[in-house]
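Lab manual, section 2.4: Encoding a predicted structure.

Procedure: take the sequence of the chain (250 residues), apply the prediction step described in section 2.3, and record the output as structure tokens. A sample record is shown.
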Amino acid sequence: MGLRIDLNADVAESFGRWRLGDDDALLPLLTSANVACGYHAGDARTIRAAVTGCARLGVVVGAQVSYRDLAGFGRRAMDVDADDLEADVLYQVAAVDGLARTAGVRARYVKPHGALYHRVLDDEAQAAALVAAVRAWDPTASVLTQPGGRLAALAADAGLAVVTEAFADRGYGDDGRLLPRSAPGALLTDPADAAAQAVRLAASGRFGSLCVHGDTPGAPAIAAAVRSALADAGIDVAAFNAGSPVNGAR
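Recorded output:
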């Protein structure tokens, strides 16, 4: 079987009258969508619209959980008690999954956002709290994260499906981690650059999913370029929850 990879992006990140991203243009290009849960972004109406769009287009719904940080868009470091974090994750997933059910689908995976995403790569207690929440919600769900971190290891040990992801629109350091957003080259906004990086990452066979950030300027154009480049390279784009596992899935 040839190479296959999922394409995910962050959606539902508007809040009330404050608009961020273009979900209508982005969703048709995706196979999985990381739906904001209200803690870093996303109000109930925005979330409902996103999961309804996913259901209509056949895009797999995922819950993008975060620290409770609307003012900082979930990108500020926070110290949260493990029991509180577990409950916070459950609360967020339940909200997205509940709204998805009204559209006739279900949330099928969890991906942390922002500061939480990076924290659980190294923090045992925070990663364990997230894993406990996912298991309590649905032990058949998947966890989407970077490879080699504590979250991936603990989730696999707990029997959860782990899908490793890479980023088409972000720069990497020599350590294989994402560059800080303040660093030069941290964000790839040229669709051609992002598409070339996406093909390199997908061709490595190490990843199950590629991410395009919904708040990256021109995200729909980037996602379109990524899909076109992957097709030209003979790499199929398919959701990791559909059919047999893709590259990088465990």
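Check your result against the sample. Strands lie at 4-11, 32-36, 60-65, 107-112, 142-145, 161-167, 209-212, 236-237.
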